[in-house]
């Protein structure tokens, strides 16, 4: 196992792109990564996905950003160095890091392999690490992470189209499993056919579910049925279609991050059906209680997944040939990519070719 001099406490020079203020414009940025600790892996970043939450962070739309912000939490690369007590990885391994990079390890959530719900969870980008430093994400040349928060990337999973699974993939996989919407033959709706939604369709199909894509217009019907292989397509603004589908779904995964009505979706659920929200609208949604009471229906939420489940998801994806549909871009295109992402002009995930295009 290779251990270099900075193992003993010397930070590593790093280079990436960062936003300096709420304008969200990114530009080249020099900074330091912490020294590789005894349980850490250091890796060369090869690809990094561009997530909608990156857009929120660089513009401080959630009010939690601390500048400069180096975005990126769908990160894959190759291990260049391991600490003396690392057990899971060796130099040369393919590795991934998702939305979180630390937690307290002592709360109930951490003990239950649900580090993502730890009150002290540390975000990969824009968080505060144990030593008080700000965490910088994957729009950079190198990463250092505790091995607990890194996942093994199977050899047969492409790195570019596999990277978004570390956020988008686990965000939809976890609720399908937790809410019991993973039994073959069940009928599940997917609201929104974007970065999250298109991956939700793929995971649901691989689990043997009947999948209906729910969208506001016919624009994505052919894409949903012909390309992604959904079983049916429903226009949520068409009262006749919605009435015909009423009471037919065991569950719905709602991926939409803009304000939208929940009442029509609740009508699609069977008795005891479950509507699970994984999008993150900035403004509160209106929740009608009457249909919940009359059908014993549940509205729930879900946020990524714990590290054990994230590894399970990546392995499941590799076994079932599930990847995201991506547009690979160079690093210097990232500002244009964010402008397009804000207009939903991407099919369905931008991925930065960091390894080949990040120039110092």
From TrEMBL:
InterPro entries: ADH-like_C, ADH-like_N, ADH_Zn_CS, CAD-like, ER, GroES-like_sf, NAD(P)-bd_dom_sf. The keyword DNA-binding does not apply. Pfam families: ADH_N (PF08240), ADH_zinc_N (PF00107). SMART domains: PKS_ER. The keyword Zinc applies. Belongs to the zinc-containing alcohol dehydrogenase family. This is Enoyl reductase (ER) domain-containing protein. It comes from Salix viminalis (Common osier).
């Amino acid at each position: 196992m290779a251990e270099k001099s900075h193992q003993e406490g010397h930070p590593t020079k790093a280079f990436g792109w960062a936003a300096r203020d709420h304008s969200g414009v990114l530009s080249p940025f020099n900074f330091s990564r912490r020294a590789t600790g005894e349980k850490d892996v250091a890796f060369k970043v090869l690809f990094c996905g561009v997530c909608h939450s990156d857009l929120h962070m660089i513009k401080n739309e959630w009010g939690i950003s601390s500048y400069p912000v180096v975005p990126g939490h769908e990160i894959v690369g190759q291990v260049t160095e391991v600490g003396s007590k690392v057990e899971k990885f060796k130099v040369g391994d393919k590795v991934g890091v998702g939305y979180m990079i630390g937690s307290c390890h002592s709360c109930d959530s951490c003990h239950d392999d649900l580090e993502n719900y730890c009150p002290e969870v540390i975000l990969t980008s824009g968080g505060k690490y144990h030593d008080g430093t700000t965490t910088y994400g994957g729009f950079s040349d190198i990463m250092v992470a505790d091995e607990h928060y890194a996942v093994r990337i199977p050899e047969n999973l492409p790195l570019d189209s596999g990277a978004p699974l570390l956020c988008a993939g686990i965000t939809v996989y976890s609720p399908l499993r937790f809410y019991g919407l993973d039994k073959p033959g069940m009928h599940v709706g997917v609201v929104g056919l974007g970065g999250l939604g298109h991956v939700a369709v793929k995971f649901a199909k691989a689990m043997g579910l009947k999948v209906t894509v729910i969208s506001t217009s016919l624009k994505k019907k052919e894409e949903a049925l012909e390309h992604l292989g959904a079983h049916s397509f429903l226009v949520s603004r068409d009262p006749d279609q919605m009435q015909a589908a009423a009471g037919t779904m065991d569950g719905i995964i709602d991926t939409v991050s803009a304000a939208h009505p929940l009442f029509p979706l609740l009508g699609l659920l069977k008795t005891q059906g479950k509507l699970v929200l994984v999008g993150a609208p900035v403004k509160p949604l209106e929740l009608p209680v009457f249909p919940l009471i009359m059908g014993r229906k549940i509205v729930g939420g879900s946020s990524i997944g714990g590290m054990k489940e994230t590894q399970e998801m990546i392995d499941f994806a590799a076994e079932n040939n599930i990847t995201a549909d991506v547009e690979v871009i160079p690093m210097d295109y990232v500002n244009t990519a964010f402008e397009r992402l804000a207009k939903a002009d991407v099919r369905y995930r931008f991925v930065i070719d960091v390894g080949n295009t990040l120039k110092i």
